[in-house]
Amino acid sequence: MNNAKLWILAEQFEGEILKVSYELLGRAKDLSKKKNCQVAAVIFGANLGDAELQKLIDRGADFVLAIEAPELKHFDNEAYSRCMLGMIDKYEPEIIIAAATSTGRTLMPYVAMTAHTGLTADCTVLDIDEEGKLLQTRPAIGGNIMATIRTQGFMPQMATVRPHSSKPAAPVEGRVGEIVRVDGNDFDLSSNIKRKELVLSSEELQLQEADKVVIVGRGIKRAENIKLIRELCDLLGAALGATRDVVDRGWLSYPHQVGLSGKTINPKLCVSIGVSGAIQQLAGMQTAENIIAINKDPEAQIFKVADIGMVGDLFEIVPVLIAKLKNGESL
Description:
Layout: E1 6-9, E2 12-13, E3 16-17, H1 19-35, E4 39-45, H2 50-58, E5 63-68, H3 77-91, E6 95-99, H4 102-115, E7 119-123, E8 125-128, E9 134-140, E10 145-150, E11 157-161, E12 178-183, H5 202-209, E13 212-216, H6 226-236, E14 239-242, H7 244-248, E15 269-273, H8 279-282, E16 290-295, E17 308-311, H9 314-326
Parallel strand pairs: 1-4, 1-6, 4-5, 5-12, 6-11, 7-11, 13-14, 13-15, 15-16, 16-17
Antiparallel strand pairs: 2-3, 8-9, 9-10
């Protein structure tokens, strides 16, 4: 692993590699070409299967550093961070990137602080400069500007990126790499954290994994009008998302929020209704394959990224769409 200077933090749940790990490998492959180095995927767990770890190699990892112990089956920041810091001391990576998930957002700041290095959170763009340094670009000042940050004089350079902000790396059958298994019991795995139970939000999972999403903005005017959008969602088989304005007004709960301060989605179809298209909103939806926008303002920013734009009153357009879907027509 001497030339594996670029690491990604892979994640698993119940022994299955999470999709966000492949998104990170997609970014890492591009960065490694510019840096001329190999890529290592670091993953924590218990008795991780060879076939599952091979998926990380198939998608771009040259090495998989699997740190295993029963105590590491589920995320525990105290235990994970000690292991990660030990691996950093041993192998001296120059760059570590993780997803801005609950795991990445918890683990990476603690590791960066303890390792006395920098961390840039919620990056949208990563690049390598002519000196081999990581360029970390993220929205700043409420999303009104894009700031590019460079960690000067400290190693490793660390960043988190928003899930679903890039496409997963495609698998390459027969790709060769090395799986390095590390006994987690070589580290102090004691913890003050006790895991009681995990209750998943079905709405949140549906939103981030859905192939179709309808996002409603403040153009819906009031909470009771959301039932119209829910009917459209049901007919499309789509998840319901919302801008921060809608959530702040209490019309929908936070798990529905899409944008800079919410979720990032990457569906095949995204229908935005009454969404202005401010940069904070676009940060969560602009990677959708197809965007249909409905807004009465012809100058709305949303139309700059939309594949199909409909200028008009949503309360006139949406009922027509619903009627067509009920008659078996498609959008």
